[in-house]
Amino acid sequence: MSSDPRRDWEAVDRYLTRLLAPADPVLDAALEASAQAGLPAIQVTPVQGRLLQLLACAVRARDILEVGTLGGYSTIWLARTLPPGGRLVTLEIEPRHVEVARANVERAGLSDRVDFRLGPARESVRRLIEERRQFDLIFLDADRPGYPDYFRASMELSHPGTLLVADNVVRNGLVADDSCDDPQVTGVRRYLELMAAEPRVIGTVLQTVGEKGHDGVAIGLVTG
Question: 10 φ, ψ to 5°?
Fold first, then answer.
């Protein structure tokens, strides 16, 4: 191994991707279309997409909520797990992102399973609460300052057995730095505090390293 830990992380990520999440024409096309449209390359990695897929399968999700669509890469990973009649609702504030994601999802043959909702996520989740929707898996990958609000909303949109998954919660280790007042960090810190204090949720965080640097994913199970 090299003397550069970051180089080692990336090499392991590439190895794991080749082994466990090999090239997929549909997913590769979604990444290419997103790049050509100028969308930021901040989607989950292939091995993280595989993790989302495994989690959705583990809870036998029929209804999934995704907060933060971007180009629809993670949307495709999740929507592929749905059984006949299953639905994924994905929330996105940027019209251009929805346009690209909709085309990517259509190319993947999943349009009948995905409900795109354009607008601020805080407003969209309020409408879902008014609709009395409940989800088997909720995946957060959006504006980190909004994570506390999304956690509170998730508790109203869940049922016992719902899995809560939140990406980018370690922030290169800054989440543990009390002196850091960056809203991107304080938002995820408050999310984790809310999860830890919620008696109806059992939660943990997995730190991750790889192509996206040092970060982590929070996973919570709603138990009551």
Answer: -65, -35
